[in-house]
Write a structure and sequence with these properties.
With 326 residues, the protein is of the alpha/beta class. The protein contains 12 helices and 10 strands. Strands 2-1-10-9-8-7-5-6-4-3 form a 10-stranded mixed beta sheet, sandwiched between helices. One of its GO terms (biological process) is lipid storage.
Length: 326
């Protein structure tokens, strides 16, 4: 789930990889070249398209490689609006040197994402990798479990895998989404903001909570988050998240696939708290776990955050898939 981001983070970040090593990373193309990631002349804009999956229109954001070595399917966090991840998708494509096609799929349901893999990607002869953010990490893991014969690797970013009973903020949100009255009221407030002239709403946004946001994040907010039905859908998804994630994670599956699963956690992130990081380390020893110190849960709201997280994902893919020949 996405929250309001903090002040714009510096590009220099402290990224801790567990269980074996830690290092500091700079979000620069020059450093990526030194690390052996071939991305020269790989910039390409992401394109939006609508795709009917099992009868439901689903929004996609994608970049298709000319000669892909693999296909990355990205599942966003709540609210499931792929436009928020435009900078991330483009950075990931660039850092992978144009060797991978990248597709971000909007939220319909877990089952529909499996249907999408079958419908759109079944005939591909290249590996399929899943990357999820927040609740999208849970969804990606679930899709991996349901379609493990098609998926070769799964990466969870700032994963929301279980309800955090220690979070007062989650407690408040849980009460709101379970209340029909409060959900309708919040949706009406959002719709009332949408009735303002777009220039006025954009001015309010960029001079308040969105002052440090990227152009893509501002545009996505202005075009999507001031619609009554969109906000109702966000709250409904949040309600299903809280109900489903009251269950214990599937540790058995994670242990079976530990070599093919990786997680990136953030600092002071109540959706993917460090106690979950510790619990995964305890339940699934040897799994790839990392901690990003500089960029928050809402990394996709800034260009720096999108670039740095994409860099980490690219490294994992390069090391675990491309270089290992999976």
């Amino acid at each position: 789930m996405l929250l309001r981001p903090t002040a714009r983070p510096l590009c220099r970040s402290s990224l801790y990889l567990q269980p074996r090593r830690s290092y500091r990373s700079r979000c620069t193309i020059k450093d990526m070249a030194r690390d052996g990631l071939d991305f020269s002349e790989a910039k390409r804009p992401a394109a939006f398209r609508l795709c009917k999956v099992s009868g439901y229109m689903t929004e996609l954001l994608e970049i298709r490689a000319d000669d892909p070595k693999l296909h990355v399917l990205f599942i966003p966090g709540n609210p499931g609006i792929v436009a928020f991840y435009k900078d991330f998708v483009e950075s990931l494509y660039e850092f992978l040197g144009g060797h991978a096609s990248v597709t971000a799929i909007g939220h319909v349901s877990h089952t529909k994402k499996v249907d999408f893999i079958i419908q759109e990607l079944e005939n591909l002869e290249v590996p399929i990798l899943l990357v999820g953010h927040s609740i999208g990490s849970y969804m990606a893991n679930d899709v991996f479990r349901r379609s493990s014969e098609k998926v070769t690797y799964c990466i969870g970013l700032y994963p929301f895998l279980a309800v955090n009973s220690q979070s007062w903020w989650q407690s408040i949100i849980g009460k709101i989404v379970e209340s029909q009255v409060l959900s309708v009221a919040l949706s009406c407030i959002a719709a009332s903001l949408g009735s303002l002239p777009s220039s006025a709403y954009r001015l309010i946004l960029t001079n308040s909570v969105g002052s440090s946001w990227s152009a893509a994040a501002v545009e996505a907010t202005c075009s999507h988050l001031v619609q009554y039905q969109v906000v109702r859908n966000i709250l409904f998804l949040a309600m299903t998240e809280f109900r489903k994630l009251a269950e214990t994670p599937d540790w058995k599956f994670m242990r079976e696939k530990r070599e093919k699963i990786a997680f990136l956690f953030g600092v002071d992130d109540h959706w993917g708290p460090l106690q979950m990081h510790k619990e995964i380390s305890k339940q699934v020893p040897g799994i790839s776990l990392s901690i990003e110190k500089a960029h928050p849960h809402t990394f996709c709201f800034t260009e720096d955050g999108s670039s740095c997280v994409a860099k980490h994902v690219a490294r994992l893919i390069q090391n675990q898939v491309l270089h290992s020949g999976q």
